[in-house]
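Entry 12.
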Amino acid sequence: MGLFRRGTHARTAEDAGVEHAVEDQDVEAAVVDDAGVDDGGVEGATTDAQDTDAHAPAVRAGGPWDVDEAPGAGPRVDLGAIQLPAVQGMELRMEIDKATGAVSAAAVSIEGSTLQIQAFAAPRTEGIWDDIRAEIAESVIKQGGSADDLPGPFGRELLARLPVRTAEGRTGHRPARFIGTDGPRWFVRGVVTGKGAVDPAAAEAIERIFADIVVVRGAEACAPRDLLPLRIPGERPAIVPDAAEASTPSFDPMTRGPEITEIR
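Predicted 3D structure (tokens):
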């Protein structure tokens, strides 16, 4: 599998989430054969409006962070609108829009889990995750899957079962978690597949990466839900060192290569 994955360009957050989540991942994603499986665990989408105040961005005690509020936390991989923590052992793959050649998403794999990440423009005065979550759930159900709206480490999230075909040609499902955070004029969305979608203990490493993302919104005017631009590591210096460790970074800069890049 090459470093640069080509796929369908996704303009909006709800369209992007479902399409990318059902594509094949480098990390094995617990596909379950639906034959004989009790569906009682995840019945359908539930939107618990009473648990959230309508659309107002929550006061955040943790990340993902805005670039103006991010704490110093070591070196990061600079992807433009997103800066990722440089975590030992993680693999990074950039997804490319086949039609335009633009980078559309980043995907990080570590310890059996994969996190696909995209950042979007959002209104100045309100968050968009509540609406997007409901739209993703509706899309999953229309495709023959199911989704539950549940509390999670980043607030409300979707636990979805995405329809797939098993190797035997039968109908199965792939678990996926849709997580999101509203920030100042931006929204960042992650899709967790693999072990982290079903095992809370296995999800800890990938959740730490999501929690330490820094979003660089920029001053450009963007319509709400437009993708914020990403770039391939190496187009500019990829590692943004922590101010306290600028002279002795812990990780080597990531450079473009023909295979998935791994930080050791």
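Annotation: The two ends are 19 Å apart (CA to CA). DSSP finds three helices and 15 strands in the chain.
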